[in-house]
Amino acid sequence: MLAFDVRRHAPYDYGFGCYLALLTLRRQFGKVIRERVWKEYGRECRTEEMEAIAEHYGGLCARRLARQGELNRRDPLLFAADELLVYGAISAVIKGSDVVFLTRDPLFMDQFVELMSLLGSDYIASEYGRRYAEDPTAFPDFGTRKNCTNPFTMTFGKAVRGNLRQGWDQAILPRTPYLINLHCWLLGRDDGDSVRLAASTFSGERGMHNLLRVKGLTGGRNVEGLDGRNIRAALRKCGKEVTMSIWEDRMIHIGATEFPQDDRLDLRIPSIAAADISRVHSNVRQMAIPWYEEDC
């Protein structure tokens, strides 16, 4: 049974629908693939073929998620674990407290890792957008690469890329953050004397509550007040050199071909970022999936 009703609690208004949509999409890999094969080739997709396609794009975990979603597609509580995960993570950020998730499901831990990855990248983009909107001079100047135009075209729109100078982190993120820890413990079998345990920890910041507030106000975007656009940012560090990319992300409407509807979900968001959708399909974080090239 469900132990809580998210619609009666604050986290529902803090980006709950956005992150729940992305996690539940992973459990619907099979449905997405079958619809795509039918659309492009006019035939039914075999189960083993569907699982192979899922593994090709998202690895072994994607194959397992697709198989589980197919086997339990009529389960009224298919998405209950994802609801609990998103609810608990948002509650921890809002309250500024640590949280521990206990599970015996390896796919739950995989969903935990995906959610933490999404939160981390969205937080950087949100803080950059907020501080830039307040003061465009707040950041160190870009040392633009010689072989890059400014701006130049990336997969999801116009972007700026450059090497950041020393002090970039203090210009974007808080200098003295209030740290919180989100843990996921995967329990294994009891061998009589001990219990096998795999642990994953995400160190976040109390300041992430502003990201979640913006997510709720804007229907899933990382920033507000920038003409309704969604801004994304990515950092890549190699030794002492840090490269930052900033780009405007396209939004895909909920209910589009690649985003299946499900009556068990009440997301209350009109669209979602194309980059996020491609990420939950692929373990290669900054590679696009061709399926989304023409979907707007």
Task: Provide keyphrases for this structure.
296 residues; alpha+beta; 4-stranded antiparallel β-sheet; 3-stranded mixed β-sheet; 8 helices; disordered C terminus
What is the strand and helix layout of this fold?
Blueprint (H helix, E strand, L loop, with lengths): L15 H12 L1 H13 L5 H25 L8 H16 L3 E5 L2 H29 L17 E3 L2 E8 L3 H5 L6 E12 L4 E11 L2 H11 L11 E9 L2 E9 L1 E3 L17 E3 H8 L15
Parallel strand pairs: 1-4
Antiparallel strand pairs: 2-3, 3-7, 4-5, 6-7, 8-9
Helix pairs in contact: 1-4, 1-8, 2-3, 4-5, 5-7
Could you please describe the fold and organization of this structure?
The chain has one domain. Helices cover 40% and strands 21% of the residues. It has eight helices and nine strands. A four-stranded antiparallel sheet has the order 2-3-7-6. A three-stranded mixed sheet has the order 1-4-5, with helices on one face. Mean pLDDT is 78; it is low at 141-157 and 284-296.
Fraction of residues in helix:
40-55%
Mean pLDDT: 78
What ranges have pLDDT less than 50 throughout 5 or more consecutive residues? 141-157, 284-296
- What Rg, in angstroms, do the CA atoms define? 20 Å
Element-level helix/strand string:
HHHHEHEEHEEHEEEEH
Describe the global form. globular
Record field, number of beta strands: 9
Q: Compute the number of helices.
A: 8
How far the N terminus sits from the C terminus, by CA atoms, comes to 38 Å
Strand order across the biggest sheet?
A: 2-3-7-6
Structural class: alpha+beta
Number of domains: 1
Percentage of residues in DSSP E strands? 15-25%
Largest sheet entry: 4 strands, antiparallel
